[in-house]
Each structure stands twice: as C-alpha cells, then as structure tokens.
Design goal:
alpha+beta; Type 1 dockerin domain; 2 domains; four-stranded antiparallel beta sheet; about 25% strand
Length: about 150
C-alpha cells in the first residue's frame, strides 16, 4: 500500500486485523464473473489507512482479505495470498498548521506549553500533539511555525 501510494510505510495505520474464515477460495472477494471454490478458507481481514496524503493530496483506506498457509500463524504467511477487496478515499489527519495545538482559535502561551511538553516526540503525522508541519516529529520546525503565528486569534 505504501509503495502504491508513494508514501513512507510509517504513515500506514492498521485499522482492523481480524481472524476470519472465508466461505470460499476467493476470500470473500470474487472478481466479476469469477467462479470460486466453495471451501472454508482461514485467513485475516486487514484494513489499512494512509495517514499522510499521496501525490494527489488524498488519503486512502484499503481492505485486504488474506488466506493463511496451512498450520502457520505468522502474519507474513497470511500475506502470501491476498486480495484487495476495497479501496476508498478517506479523510486525512489534520495538523494545526498555525500552531494552535489546543484548538481554541488562539495561538498563545497555552499552545507553547503543549509544544514544549511534547517537544522531541515522534509518532504518526496528524496524531502527535504539537506537530504543526505534519512530519511526525515535534521539533524546531514546529516551534518556528508556532512562533510565526504567535498572537493570532487574540
């Protein structure tokens, strides 16, 4: 998914990871006109979401159906046989591009406290508090954005 979207793998989040028994050899996801063997097939339903925009400024959610290799519980063995059953555009995580980290419409000392409390933290872009530029790191660049907007909304 990351490769298809042209984004770093760290910007992919697992939304769902469920063990299932598919009712057919097509993993519950037949192609139009495809005939599927009617056999119970153990596997997983994996739903993955991009947390960062692709080159078209869109975020996506993919639903994968996998088949488990016989007598194996390793996730890698589930990925040997898979189908992408659904791809849909979803809303992207938002970062406070002006440094208003508490969302009160003002860029002030309270936002500075939030920035300092989270300074140096790394995580998923759009989900880490204090990450104004949405790069997944709270650092001097976020401070620069905060400082440039300090006093707005007062």
């Amino acid at each position: 998914m990351a490769e298809a979207l042209g984004i770093d793998i760290r910007y992919i989040s697992i939304v769902e990871n469920t063990d299932v028994e598919w009712r057919d050899g097509c993993l519950g996801c037949p192609e139009p006109g495809e005939k599927c063997a009617q056999v119970i097939t153990p596997g997983k339903k994996l739903v993955l979401k991009s947390l960062y925009q692709d080159s078209n400024n869109k975020c996506w959610q993919y639903e994968y159906h996998t088949a488990r290799l016989v007598n194996s519980l390793a996730l890698n063995d589930h990925c040997a046989q898979y189908r992408i059953c659904e791809m849909k555009e979803v809303g992207c995580s938002q970062c406070p591009a002006n440094g208003d980290f508490n969302g009160d419409g003002k860029v002030n000392e309270f936002d500075y406290g939030i920035l300092i409390a989270h300074f140096g933290e790394e995580g998923v872009p759009g989900e880490i508090t204090g990450d104004a530029n949405c790069d997944g790191v709270v650092d001097e660049f976020d401070y620069g954005i905060f400082f440039a907007h300090f006093g707005e909304g007062e």
